[in-house]
UniProtKB/TrEMBL annotation:
It comes from Liquorilactobacillus uvarum DSM 19971. Gene3D superfamilies: NADP-dependent oxidoreductase domain. It comes from the Bacteria. This is NADP-dependent oxidoreductase domain-containing protein.
Amino acid sequence: MVALAKSVHKKRMAENFASLDFKLTDDEMKKIAVLDKNESQFFDHRDPAAVKRIHDLVRHVD
């Protein structure tokens, strides 16, 4: 999952861009990599019942 920063205010936009001014070490990248379980945290795309639930939700949005 990814958090996306959103703002229409110049000051907040500058703060959001400034938050990207860092570098991760190789060790930190390895620690992050082990978090990847290679599966969706949202729903199982291979589960027909889960796909139907999402499809039905989207279908009912006007």
